Amino acid sequence: MTKRAYCVHRRDTPEHEEIVFAETPGQAKSKASHLSDDFLDLVCRRDARFDRYADTETVPIAALVAAGWRFECHGAGCSAWVLADDEDPVILIDGKPYCARCAANQMEKMVDGS
Ligand SMILES: [Zn+2]
Fold first, then answer.
1. Side-chain half-sphere CA neighbours of 109 within 13 A
2. Which of 30, 32, 38, 43 has the fewest CB atoms within 10 Å, counting from its CB?
3. How far apart are CA 73 and CA 75, in angstroms?
């Protein structure tokens, strides 16, 4: 059976979703057991948008952003949320999400070579 993409999150933290590749919803939940010890605490739904990544079981952040996910900025000391259609769009550097301000800082550092 081919693996399919499931979106799993804890009942009390729907904003912390994770994509898991599995053959059944039950298997998806057991693969996401690090989210919660309690099986019944996990909510799982199919997300066919990510099925194409089943081979590698890795969804690129760019694809998640395009699907409407939001990420905490990777910049040091910054906790801004960045998402695809925000006024402050997410910028990926080395595959990590940054807000516009931190991305500018990061670019500067790279130019300086420090
Ligand atoms: Zn930032």
1. 10
2. 38
3. 5
Q: Are 38 and 79 within one domain?
A: no
Segment 57-82 mean pLDDT: 89
Q: How far is the CA of 81 from the centre of ligand 1 (A)?
A: 8
**Rounded mean pLDDT of the chain?**
89
**Which pLDDT value is given to residue 85?**
67
By residue range, what is the domain housing residue 26? 4-59
Distance, CA of 25 to CA of 74 (rounded, Å): 31
Using the mean position of ligand 1's atoms as its centre, give its distance from the Cα of residue 82 in Å: 8
pLDDT for 6 equals 97
Tell me, in angstroms, the distance from the centre of ligand 1 to residue 108's CA.
14
